[in-house]
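During the no-cost extension, the postdoctoral fellow (Dr. R.K.) reprocessed legacy sequence entries with the updated structure-token encoder. One reprocessed record is reproduced below for audit purposes.
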Amino acid sequence: MSNFVRSLKLWFAPERIREDGDTPDYRFSLANERTFLAWLRTALALIGGGFAVDQFLPDLRWGWRIGLALALLVSGVLCSLRAVNHWVRCERAMRRGEDLPSSRFPTVLSLAVAVVAVAMVVVVLFGWEG
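Re-encoded structure tokens follow.
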């Protein structure tokens, strides 16, 4: 079974993580949980931003408005899914005494947010109607 499928099963049965390796210092598990919650706050902010763009910029050309809103909403969804996946991967690595997993997701998310921000700057500078 692939690591992804195994991790996906642990999303819904996190108590099974205890079967793997040794219990780490609880402070590390709590830090991992705080990181998970920070990712969820980021996801909620992205989702809120997506709704805000759609609802509060009615004069923005439809394609721009929907494109920017969807970019933020999809980023929020991916961020929330990545949060739980990263939590499981880190918890398993700590229990096994392995290095914590690295990820390119923060870079991808940062680039997506930067693209949306640049698009919003262009919209503000050159007007709503395009």
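The mean pLDDT is 89. The two ends are 50 Å apart (CA to CA). The remaining legacy entries will be reprocessed before the final report is submitted.
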